[in-house]
Design a protein that fits this description.
By secondary structure, the protein is mostly helical. It contains five helices and four strands; from the N terminus they run αββαααββα. The chain is elongated, with a radius of gyration of 31 Å. The N and C termini lie far apart (96 Å). The longest helix has 31 residues, at 2-32. A hairpin with a 4-residue loop joins strand 3 (144-146) and strand 4. Keywords: Signal. Residues 1-15 form the signal peptide.
């Protein structure tokens, strides 16, 4: 009789152990399950770089330390001319920068190639893309990502970000892209 009760008790313990193991595995699964991606929403504040009559607002992070925030606002005010506040502010690219030239040797005869047709809108995109690559090649993929109509300054900390913005703004002003 005692042997039978002992066997039943062992059997119940084993079942309970399996159920606990299953429960623990399920809890581990739940903790490791990928959570849905939530975009980071930083608190921002609007800063007017213009006057009360001529409002030129930019958004900056409100959590910046005061020294960095002041330095950033000072640089943005100093280089406010590099921003296109309206379509009329957008510059025309200098042909010296964006024209593609082939260095040919005078003693070599050129060979006529098959004509490549490009859609007019794609030709303009390629021209602008080539221009951005030419102008910002030393900064690209390091501290700046440059697209045809957009630029992103990258950095690992706040102080470095202000330095990268300054370098980007100086380049924009140098090539008259302001």
């Amino acid at each position: 009789m005692i042997l039978l009760l002992l066997q039943i008790l062992v059997s119940l313990c084993l079942r309970l152990r399996r159920r606990l193991m299953n429960l623990m595995n399920y809890l581990v699964y739940l903790s490791m399950r990928k959570k849905p991606f939530q975009p980071f929403e930083e608190q921002i504040e609007l800063v007017n770089l213009g006057s009360e009559d001529d409002v030129k607002e930019v958004k900056i992070g409100s959590q910046l330390c005061p020294e960095v925030k002041k330095g950033l606002i000072d640089i943005l005010r100093e280089y406010s001319d590099v921003f296109a506040w309206s379509y009329q502010d957008m510059p025309v690219l200098d042909s010296e920068i964006v024209e593609h030239r082939l260095p040919l040797k005078p003693e070599c005869l050129p060979i006529k190639q098959k004509l490549w047709r490009t859609r007019p809108d794609m030709a303009e995109y390629q021209r602008r893309s080539r221009a951005m690559t030419t102008l910002f090649h030393d900064m690209m993929h390091k501290e700046t990502e440059v697209y045809v109509d957009d630029m992103i300054a990258k950095s690992s900390d706040e102080e470095e970000h202000v330095e990268h913005l300054l370098k980007l703004f100086q380049c924009l002003r140098k090539y008259k892209l302001a």
